[in-house]
Each structure stands twice: as C-alpha cells, then as structure tokens.
Design goal:
Length: 102
C-alpha cells in the first residue's frame, strides 16, 4: 500500500481538480466539487495469535452540489479497496462517504 501523499495524488487524478482537502480546519473555504479525507482506524489482520499486517484506512467524502455527480462512480471504479457508505445531503450539498484502504 502507499503513503498518504500518494493517495492524495490519486484522489486529485480521480476528481480531476485540486479541490482535495486533508483534515481541513473549519476556517478553510471549500471549493466544490471537492473531496475531504482523514485518517481512520485501519484494518489489522491476524494469524497465529498475532497481527501480521495492518492496512491504513481513510474516510473520503465526495461533496458536490450536483445530485447526479459522476465523481462517486469514478471512485468506485478506480479504487479496488473502496467501500462506499451511505449518501446524505447537508447544507444543500450531496455527500458520498467512502472508506478507502491504502
């Protein structure tokens, strides 16, 4: 698996813009469509009474005003270890959360 900066670069490619924010403070003015992501718990794997592998995970949220955005589909197609969450709307914006193991 790769580093966070490699994931950041991949997210920018999939999104097609630089509107990608890692753990942004509330003072940052977001430009839409965008992606916000942050570290999550990760996934340990065990065998023989011990952990032999740990994969970092990130919560990645695609935010777009367009309810028919194709960006979430690009994430599903481009990232093999991507688990979609439940879509929700907030502040007149559509949010598609994903858990990505990278």
């Amino acid at each position: 698996m790769g580093t966070r900066l490699e994931l950041d670069s991949l997210i920018r490619q999939i999104l097609g813009s630089n509107n990608v924010y890692f753990q942004p403070p509330e003072s940052v003015k977001l430009k839409y469509p965008c992606v916000i992501y942050h570290r999550d718990d990760g996934r340990p794997e065990y065998a023989d009474d011990g952990m032999y592998k740990f994969t970092k995970s990130y919560t990645v949220t695609v935010i777009d005003a367009n309810p028919d955005s194709e960006i979430p589909d690009r994430f599903r197609e481009s990232l093999p270890y991507c688990r979609p969450g439940r879509w929700y709307a907030a502040d007149n914006l559509n949010h598609w959360p994903f858990t990505i193991y990278f």
